Amino acid sequence: MDFGNRLGDIEITDPQAMRALAHPVRLAILDRLQRHGPATATQLAPDVGATPSVTSWHLRHLAGFGLVRDAEAGADRRQRRWEAAARGFRFEAPEDEEGRSAARALSREMFVRYGDLPIRWAAEVEPNLDPLWQGAAGLANTRVVVSAQELAAIQDGIEQVLAPYVTREPSERPAGSRGVRLMRYVLPEQDEQQAGGTL
Known about the structure:
Helix content: 40-55%
Largest sheet: 3 strands, antiparallel
Low-confidence stretches: none
Structural class: mainly alpha
Number of domains: 2
Oligomer: single chain
Strand order of the largest sheet: 2-4-3
CATH class of the largest domain: Mainly Alpha
CATH topology of the largest domain: Arc Repressor Mutant, subunit A
CATH architecture of the largest domain: Orthogonal Bundle
Radius of gyration: 19 Å
């Protein structure tokens, strides 16, 4: 796995690793570990919808691809604690058919897992936010017409802005900080000219 990006994400290039992560329990495990830090299979089980033994099996499977690893032992050294190998992950569809199929499977599972997150946020979290945080939150639905190279440059620019906030140490966060989910969907549309439409 490669960590050579400015956000410190794992870059998944192996189709087998993509398929391993394209599972609801495994994706839930990784999400929970990234958000809340190290945990045992028993601690994770209620949040990921599996028994502790099934959760442990999925953890070992993820570890085989370098997505999770052993954490420092807790107070009870008999319990194996796990942590995410990085803050986040990213993947691109490889050029071969197996890789593209694996990337599609992982993308679909991520859409299923996170698709209703904005609706849940609007119903459960937003009504209880103070006005300052309500004002800072928001949605945007911007359509641009760009080349693939320009789209890559836009993505790079967004990461340049985010990197200092993503990678800073907890001690460097200002008072009153809280977790914020920034969701980015970058969805190239069908080529309208090939489809018989106009831009």
